[in-house]
Design a protein that fits this description.
With about 260 residues, this protein is mainly alpha-helical. It has one domain. A hairpin with a 5-residue loop joins strand 1 and strand 2. The N terminus and C terminus are likely disordered.
Length: about 260
């Protein structure tokens, strides 16, 4: 994220403070939802889809695995290098490089172009299973993720602040566990219902990806497999993020319903 993508937010002393847009799963706890910010902005989308797009295009044109893998890896490395030169955070771009590196290694090892997507299929299957199990045991994963963000467990700085703000327990009292917030929501039927419904959206996302891509993978149709990988990637992920936000918004605001942007 470049500095131009940041926006100022007021603080108690009246001075502006630079804060990052709510991206990815963090967007689920935002007062409003911006699709562009949730998926990482234009630059984030380009960094997410470019390596896969380059792989598909080069392979369809050349029918040669080696230049396809090298071009895809090169696109991912260039994205990181550009951020390093501009001195902007590289976390998102590095995540893309790691994902591409795994796909490149797997395909290079097997010599089959479709194996570029194999690890992604296994990852989607694992997430699908995890969400289904979490719903079955009434610990929907969306609830754990949202409550972890709200309580600061996904942000080390927020955790330290929360720890500093906790008062020392009085004599005879037991200090509340910092993990209590991760389970407290389960006593609220409305929250459990919201998080369960939202978790089903994610089950649907991973099920759709597998239903479409597995037959293409088994058939070795790299062109269509790569195309569906892009179509069912960021766009579908962003849609499910928005649907999840719609369901969980207002859960902790006394019925106040923020608006999407």
């Amino acid at each position: 994220m470049s500095r131009d993508d940041e926006h100022a937010a007021p603080v108690d002393d009246g001075t502006p403070q630079r804060t990052s847009p709510a991206r990815g799963m963090r967007s689920l706890t935002a007062d409003s939802f911006s699709f562009a910010e949730a998926v990482g902005g234009v630059r984030g989308v380009v960094e997410a889809i470019l390596p896969g797009l380059v792989f598909v295009v080069v392979y369809v044109v050349t029918q040669d695995l080696t230049p396809s893998l090298l071009a895809s890896a090169g696109a991912a490395v260039v994205a990181v290098a550009a951020r390093l030169v501009q001195r902007t955070p590289v976390t998102q771009a590095l995540g893309g490089v790691l994902g591409i590196a795994v796909g490149v290694f797997w395909a290079w090892r097997s010599g089959e172009a479709e194996d570029f997507y194999a690890v992604g299929l296994w990852t989607n299957a694992a997430y699908l299973l995890a969400f289904v199990v979490s719903i079955a045991v009434r610990w929907p994963l969306v609830g754990l993720v949202v409550e972890a963000i709200r309580s600061g467990f996904s942000d080390p700085a927020a955790r330290r602040t929360a720890a500093d703000d906790r008062a020392e327990p009085a004599d005879g009292e037991t200090q509340e566990s910092p993990f209590a917030a991760l389970a407290a929501w389960r006593s609220d039927p409305d929250l459990v219902r919201r998080y369960t419904v939202a978790s089903w959206f994610w089950v649907g996302l991973f099920a759709i990806r597998l239903a479409v891509k597995v037959p293409l993978y088994l058939g070795g149709d790299v062109g269509w497999l790569g195309t569906m990988h892009l179509v069912l990637g960021v766009p579908l992920w962003g849609l499910v993020l928005w649907l999840t936000w719609v369901v969980v918004r207002g859960a902790h605001t006394g019925g106040r319903e923020p608006a999407a942007t």
